[in-house]
Design a protein that fits this description.
single chain; binds ligand C2E; binds magnesium ion
Length: 287
């Protein structure tokens, strides 16, 4: 009866568990070779001012093209790397790649994602300082992006780490803001420069009064606290207009630019402003 049915269910469940564990192991194995095999690259997504689309910075995002599985999203492989020590190797590689770009860009900052485990590593501050000095760049051109998950566990220690990073001159951004736990408490307590509004709120702005209200509140709060606020995931003209009304100072999203390769990023950095997406075709000068 129940026992028999139960056993069937358990067996199916176990098989799918096996499957997913095996898959994770394969991903882990592939990832551990990915750097040496040159399968990873960094792409860069412009972050720009709302007023005149000036490119003020770039978010560095990792890409993995696996020979076995094709392109795999970091949303899938970063959490796997995070569960092993691989995250340190991948993260160090990403940081070095991102820092190297700064020597080619006239004045923008680069914003690098750090997972909770990276952030909590022993002597994280010393490590970042060392890599930055090695690259020969000013600390104020590196923005460290962390999520609330990274600071929630051990708030005391996190506050100290952020304080010291900021003392050294690094910029600190709280990523995916609004989705984490105890958001308001965190921004009061931690040394921050920037809030990145999670793209789920931007996505909801046109549809739900709630999302629009939250976006407005975050922008107000950020301003009142002297923080830069970046709206993530801006995909439409309508969202851009709504953010203008809300008084948002900075934006990032497919409507402005997808993440691009290093050489394209350098061209955008030199050009300094993103061209309007629908640029009017210049009238032909006739004689
Ligand atoms: P994130 O840090 O929140 O990065 C923003 C994500 O939103 C990126 O996804 C970006 O490509 C995507 N995005 C940007 N604009 C739009 C838009 O208009 N619409 C939509 N739908 N998406 C947009 P991506 O590159 O797939 O990265 C996913 C996540 O993986 C990142 O989220 C970050 O948490 C993690 N990640 C990526 N690269 C690294 C890395 O080098 N180190 C670490 N630790 N994590 C990374
Ligand atoms: Mg990010
Ligand atoms: Mg984000
Ligand atoms: Mg995210």
């Amino acid at each position: 009866e129940a026992k028999r049915a139960g056993r069937g269910v358990v067996r199916v469940f176990d098989e799918s568990m096996d499957e997913s564990i095996r898959f994770r192991r394969q991903i882990e194995g592939g990832l551990s070779q990915a750097i040496a095999r040159g399968e990873l690259k960094m792409v860069f997504q412009p972050i720009c001012s709302h007023s005149d689309l000036e490119v003020t910075g770039f978010e560095a995002l990792m890409r993995w093209n696996s020979p076995e599985y094709g392109p795999i999203s970091p949303a899938m492989f970063i959490p796997i790397a995070e569960e092993s020590n691989l995250i340190h190797e991948l993260g160090d590689w990403a940081l070095d790649e991102a820092l190297a770009m700064l020597n080619q860009w006239p004045g923008q900052y680069v914003s690098v994602n750090f997972s909770p485990r990276q952030f909590r590593r022993t002597n994280f501050v010393g490590h970042v300082v060392e890599r930055t000095q090695h690259a020969g760049v000013e600390p104020n051109r590196l923005q460290i992006e962390i999520t609330e998950t990274a600071i929630f566990d051990n708030a005391e220690r996190a506050a100290d780490t952020l304080y010291r990073l900021r003392q050294m001159g690094f910029r600190i951004a709280l990523d995916d803001f609004g989705t984490g736990y105890s958001s308001l408490w965190n921004i009061r307590r931690f040394a921050l420069d920037c809030l990145k509004i999670d793209r789920s709120f931007i996505d909801g702005m046109g549809r739900e009064r709630e999302s629009a209200a939250i976006v407005h509140s975050i922008i107000h709060l950020g301003k009142a606290l002297g923080l830069e606020v970046v709206a993530e995931g801006v995909e439409t003209e309508a969202q851009l207009q709504a953010l203008r009304v809300a008084g948002c100072s900075h934006m990032q999203g497919y409507f402005l630019s997808r993440p691009v390769d290093a050489d394209v990023a350098t061209r955008l950095a030199e050009q300094r402003h993103l061209m309007p997406v629908e640029e009017p075709v210049p009238a032909t000068v006739s004689d």
